Amino acid sequence: xxxxxxxxxxxxxxxxxxxxxxxxxxxxxxxxxxxxxxxxxxxxxxxxxxxxxxxxxxxxxxxxxxxxxxxxxxxxxxxxxxxxxxxxxxxxxxxxxxxxxxxxxxxxxxxxxxxxxxxxxxxxxxxxxxxxxxxxxxxxxxxxxxxxxxxxxxxxxxxxxxxxxxxxxxxxxxxxxxxxxxxxxxxxxxxxxxxxxxxxxxxxxxxxxxxxxxxxxxxxxxxxxxxxxxxxxxxxxxxxxxxxxxxxxxxxx
Amino acid sequence: xxxxxxxxxxxxxxxxxxxxxxxxxxxxxxxxxxxxxxxxxxxxxxxxxxxxxxxxxxxxxxxxxxxxxxxxxxxxxxxxxxxxxxxxxxxxxxxxxxxxxxxxxxxxxxxxxxxxxxxxxxxxxxxxxxxxxxxxxxxxxxxxxxxxxxxxxxxxxxxxxxxxxxxxxxxxxxxxxxxxxxxxxxxxxxxxxxxxxxxxxxxxxxxxxxxxxxxxxxxxxxxxxxxxxxxxxxxxxxxxxxxxxxxxxxxxxxxxxxxxxxxxxx
Lengths: 253, 266
Hints:
The complex is a heterodimer.
Chain A: E1 12-21, E2 24-34, E3 39-43, H1 50-58, E4 68-70, E5 73-74, E6 82-85, H2 99-104, H3 119-131, H4 147-159, E7 165-169, H5 177-190, E8 195-199, H6 203-208, E9 212-217, E10 219-224, H7 225-236, H8 241-251
Parallel strand pairs in A: 3-8, 3-9, 6-7, 7-8
Antiparallel strand pairs in A: 1-2, 1-4, 4-5, 9-10
Helix pairs in contact in A: 3-4, 4-5
Chain B: H1 8-33, H2 37-57, H3 61-82, H4 87-108, H5 117-121, H6 129-148, H7 150-158, H8 160-165, H9 170-192, H10 197-211, H11 215-240, H12 244-265
Helix pairs in contact in B: 1-6, 1-9, 1-10, 1-11, 2-3, 2-4, 2-9, 2-10, 3-4, 3-9, 6-9, 7-9, 10-11, 10-12, 11-12
């Protein structure tokens, strides 16, 4: 667990970040420090700026270059350290592509331009598929997989570039309840190696998996719930969403 | 049919049929997976403007159509990248304006009496050596481009957002696919005519999509299926003295129906 970390060691350091589309201010004075191996969940209403914040971290939307730092360097030089798992994995479902090919999309540094995947590339992709529990589906067409399986492939694709941070946008929005739990168990396992940022509506995951919560609605309020969780769970070993909202409410500025 | 192979025009037709079928298989696959069928239709019809310019100016029809189709493709690429929400309107506009330009220029050409039907419905039996060189050159160009950039094209086609995050120049590859489509349309016009180009670029691909697990195998399967349809269509066209392009398309469509029924029954 990462308690009492020196603030200089923040992996992603967001300082006084504001952003507007045309004239409408979407994010205002955002300050957020994300530390190595955090499991941060970003919640907030639709249109509150969650996705905009995510796009700024990914470098899709351009922020003032001093307002987001990655390991104390400018974001641009470090973008490959942040891997992204998109929300909608149901796009292009009829596309003739195998799971393993989707994963190798993450490798843009391939030296050989002509068709063909190198042996070490394939082996590495298989290793990653194994990590997400999908090795037997390597040659399966992406459209033949279930929503949960497809999400695992997308996570594997993101892991291919050996990122420090994994950023997931509503990772379980198209998946049934059992599949959702399995995805979060996988993320928990991956969290031992990488920092995880999840955008979600689903409060129950905050209880079980998150260590930090950021609520974004133009402004940002931040909660380190790893400590709070201990206080609450000690009562009867179970907390429900109502209590979670209570404890988040207590800290609301 | 067999004795017909001794005729040079029949040999040319067969070579052209195979070349165009494979090119259509490769580029048609890219058009279908990128959902560009309507765009390709627009380019095909706009290409008629190029035919008109060539006839009016008295130069090579291939040259006129190629240049005109590439300009139409570049314009479409520009519009789709800049003004995504107005794309339907612009495709419709390019589609109709190109044809209108072609028709007016043909009207203005003095003493003009070439059979315009051959451009609308194809004239594979009239393929000459110049056409074959052009088709062969295009076949080599497309094979090279698709093999060289296969992984980038695959990434852009499957998930352009992610490809862009990975640093792939999505706009370049999008434009490349459209320009290659324009070139393909120009030669497919010779075989099936511009009215029927879209069928050649979609029917074999639709069948191949159901049986392929990778883009590469889909391209090859589409090429083989299209070749089969072209040869059968050509044979029917020759035997019963019917328009070749229409025969090829009807053979394709009939096969598609059988394929779909077969897939349902499975």
